Amino acid sequence: MSFPLLITLIVFILIFLLRMPIAIGMLSAAACYFLVKGGDLSLIVNQVMNTYYTNYVIIAVPLFIFTANVMNSGKVTDMIFKFAGGLCGRMRGSLGHVNILASLIFSGMTGSAIADAAGLGKIEIAAMKDDGYDAEFACAITAASATIGPIFPPSIPLVIYAMLSSTSVGALFMGGMIPAILLALFLMIYVAIVSKKRNYPRGERIVWKTFLRFTFSALPALMTPVILLVGIYTGVMTPTEAGAIAGLYAILVSVFAYRAMGIQDLIEVVKTSIKDIGATSIMIGAAAVISYIVAREQLAANIGNWILSFTASKYTFLFLVNIVILILGMFMDTSTIQLVFVPIMIPVASALGIDMVHFGLVVTFNMMVGLSTPPFGMLLFITSGISGTPLKGIMREIIWPIIVMLIVLVIITYIPEVTLFLPKATGLIV
Amino acid sequence: MIPIRSLRGSGCSCINSYGGYPLKKIALFLRDVMEIYIPILSFVLLFTAFILQVFFRYVINHPLTWTQDVIVIGFCWTVILGACYTMRRKGHVQFSMLYEAYSPKVAAWARMLGNLLIVVTFALMIVPSFKYAFFLGFQKTPVLRVSYTWIFLPFTYFVVSIIGYTIAPIVEDWKVIRGILKDSHDHLVDPILGEVHKV
User: How far is B180 from chain A (nearest CA, A)?
Assistant: First the structure.
């Protein structure tokens, strides 16, 4: 290992020990590298800005962040919740199922697990608590179902992965559909078992007329994923443009259809979005500089050769990747894992002949499990915060949903067709 | 621009010598222009350009070319200047688990050392980033012919802004180390999660 790289690595460790903002810390680490190496610091500016200037696909990220924020501030979440309630009717543990179905529908609009848990989760947990469910169970199911958000298209992490691996966003979006539905299905089986065991209440009987009214009210919101997916797959718009169209549609739905937002609210939403965009996008830029250093020092190639020296089996490699990401997910934010560690794994996966769409969905799914794994699980913090439920109880209750998610992870890891069937059937990959 | 909070914290007399309040007000307004209004405007522009691009290509059947320039420039400005606002709102992703476990004094030392590292490395980036933006001045966007200087220059503001937002916490941590303060605000309340983790 060269001396400049060693210095970079030390600063990189300091980011975590000294709690520096990770993106800012990465830029500092890069500056240290170039200072020791004797290079020009303007290379940092060059790498960061060129990432933004030349990667057209990542412009979808701020657009989807904005869409998620608009959807969360209107009545959209209410409408989806009522509609999902109508679908589940008199089932035992109805609200648990509603929670999962609503997340699946909402995931077709936003592509962010945090948005799902913070917006929809608030209504879901309150309703479940009022109906006699354990608060910890309500929080755990909300966190687990929010995981569906970035798996079902559109998805912010999948857009970022597409940029990192030069994979088609359309193929990744298509590949995420079956895993997301599979996860929803498995979580619903889990809810059914727990509801029977704990005797959770049945849902209210809903007559057809009421159900139709709910459906009609929710229709503008339900149309979002349809417009998006049809638009992308008929070639009318690129996935990046779809982000803008989704944003426009979200404004039309919230401001005009539901009259839930005024201009002032909209400005506030843009302001919040700017803050979120700043946090996510600067991570992308800073990680690009680190990736440049990693490539320059041939670190990824060396790690790749090292891994390939003791395994040439893609399934063993995928197993190792899953273990590493699961452990990282227990302690780190998903953006750090995706932007710092995944780029090192991509060339090895490619060398082993793993399909990039398959690999992308495996790592993204795994990272999303990490949002619920203690001790650092962002979804646990959010559900705890919005409901006032102690973290300890949620951490106990989340264990089984995590096991359910891991079962789905094993399925999508070892049966590639689960992720590849739709992209192949639609001709997006061969 | 160095945030006013840090100037106040460091006892800078330049504001008071100019009558204090009006200058401070102007400085705060300019900061908002750079970190809130321009990113909002850039985002709205890029958003509108996208809508027009799809509309003109698909409905009118007359593809626009200038929208690409607006989108990319708008994106660069939104991200870089927005990241300053994120810093102001303490919204950047950080690894807090160890920091939370530290005692107030250890936490103060940790954050102060981290921030000093940021200040030093970012200070060294100011001139190169500024020079680089002007060096690229000869390059222009394909359609609107906007100089690359305008696209790259916000990075210099970003670097200066980050330094500015880092100074106040350094002062706060120094007070904790000296025993003037019991604990820093950040150590009591997580900037991203608020008091969530304390529940």
Answer: 21
Task: Give the closest of B80, B110, B132 to A19, CB-based.
Answer: B110
* Residues 78-97 of chain B whose Cβ lies under 8 A from any Cβ of chain A: 78-80, 82-87, 89, 91-97
B21 membership: H or E segment, kind and range: helix B21-32
Interface predicted TM-score of the whole assembly (ipTM), two decimals: 0.87
Query: Which of A23, A40, A277 lies nearest to residue B93, judging by beta carbons?
Result: A23
Rounded Cα gap, residues A39 and A48, in angstroms: 16
Which residues, including other chains, have CB under 8 Å from residue B106's CB and lie 6 or more apart? none
Which residues, listed in sequence order, are joined to residue A92 by a DSSP beta bridge?
A: A202
Alpha-carbon distance A280 to A335, whole Å?
7
Q: How many CB pairs under 8 A join A and B?
A: 208
Place of tokens 């936490």: B107
Sign of the torsion formed by the C-alpha atoms of A269, A272, A278 and A279: negative
Dig out the tokens for A295 from the structure.
């490539």
Q: Pick the closest to residue B186 from B85, B90, B84 (CA basis).
A: B90
**Distance of alpha carbon B168 from alpha carbon A65, whole angstroms:** 30
Cα(B71)–Cα(B42) distance, integer angstroms: 9
3-state SS track over chain A: CCHHHHHHHHHHHHHHHCCCEHHHHHHHHHHHHHHHHCCCCHHHHHHHHHHHHHCHHHHHHHHHHHHHHHHHHCCHHHHHHHHHHHHHCCCECHHHHHHHHHHHHHHCCCCCHHHHHHHHHHHHHHHHHHCCCCHHHHHHHHHHHHCCCCCCCCCHHHHHHHHHHCCCHHHHHHHHHHHHHHHHHHHHHHHHHHHHHHCCCECCCCCHHHHHHHHHHHHHHHHHHHHHHHHHHCCCCCHHHHHHHHHHHHHHHHHHHCCCCCHHHHHHHHHHHHHHHHHHHHHHHHHHHHHHHHHHCCHHHHHHHHHHHHCCCHHHHHHHHHHHHHHHHHHCCHHHHHHHHHHHHHHHHHHCCCCHHHHHHHHHHHHHHHCCCCCCCHHHHHHHHHHCCCHHHHHHHCHHHHHHHHHHHHHHHHCCHHHHHHHHHCCCCC
Contact A62 B79 (CB under 8 A): yes
pLDDT at A284: 92
Of A11, A18, A333, the CB nearest to B111: A18
- Which of A221, A222, A265, A227 has the alpha carbon at shortest distance from A245? A227
Q: Global pTM?
A: 0.86
Each of the 430 residues of chain A gets a pLDDT tens digit; together they read 789 999 999 999 999 999 999 999 999 999 999 999 988 899 999 999 999 998 888 999 999 999 988 887 767 888 888 888 888 878 889 999 999 999 999 888 888 888 888 888 888 899 999 989 999 999 999 999 999 999 998 899 999 999 999 999 999 999 999 999 999 999 999 999 999 999 998 887 878 888 888 888 888 888 888 888 888 888 888 888 988 998 999 899 888 888 888 888 889 999 999 998 998 899 999 999 998 998 888 887 888 888 888 778 899 999 999 999 999 999 888 888 999 889 989 989 998 999 999 999 999 999 999 999 988 888 998 898 888 888 889 999 999 999 999 999 999 999 999 999 999 998 888 7
Q: What DSSP state is assigned to residue B102? A: S
